[in-house]
Amino acid sequence: MVESDRYRKDLEELLSGAGLGLVDLSVSRHRGSVQVRAVIYAPGGTGIDECSRAHRLIQPRLQVLLSEQDFHLEVASPGVDRWIRSDREYAIFTGRGIRILLKEGDEWLAGRIAQAGPSAMTIRGAWGERTVEYASIAKARLDYAQEGA
C-alpha cells in the first residue's frame, strides 16, 4: 500500500465534515524530510480561504498520523484545467466542465459531468448526453469554458 493511501481515508473524512473534498494526496520522503501535498475541492469554489481552512484541519491530524516526524504540508486547489488522474475524481467534479479524449478516436468530447458512477459517467453537452466508460478514456481534463454552456 502506498503511504498516501494510508492517510487518504482519514483525511477525506476530516475534510468532508468541513464541506471540502480531498482530490489528491501525495506523501514523499527525501533525505529525512517528509513532503505532503493535498489538493482539495469545495463545490462552491476553492480559493485561499478553503485552502487555509483545509491546512488548519490537516496539519494537526498529520502530526498525529506521522508521529514524531517533521513534515512540510502544501494545500492547493485543483485549478480550472486539472488533468484527471483517477476515476474517483469524476464523482468529485460532478457538475464541472470537462474535455475527454476517447481511446478510439482523435476528437475531444466536451461538456459537463452530469453524473458519475463507479465505472462510467454521463457527460452533457450542447449535442445532448452520452455515457462514457472510464476504461474508454485516454485523457481527461477539467474545462472551465464548458461551465457557461
Provide structural commentary.
The protein is an alpha+beta fold and 149 residues long. The chain has 2 domains: 3-76, RimP-like superfamily, N-terminal (GMP Synthetase, Chain A, domain 3, 2-Layer Sandwich); 88-148, SH3 type barrels (Roll), CATH 2.30.30.100. Helices cover 25% and strands 39% of the residues. It contains 3 helices and 8 strands. The strands form 2 sheets. A 5-stranded antiparallel β-sheet has the order 7-6-5-4-8, with no helix packed on it. Strands 1-2-3 form a 3-stranded mixed β-sheet. β4 and β5 form a beta hairpin. α1 (3-16) packs across α2 (48-65). The longest helix is centred in the middle third of the chain and has 18 residues, at 48-65. The radius of gyration is 17 Å and the shape is elongated. The mean pLDDT is 90.
The CATH class label of the largest domain is: Alpha Beta
First-last Cα distance? 41 Å
The total count of helices amounts to 3
Average residue-wise pLDDT: 90
Task: Give unreliable regions as ranges.
Answer: none
Strand order, main sheet: write it out: 7-6-5-4-8
Estimate nothing, just give the exact number of structural domains.
Answer: 2
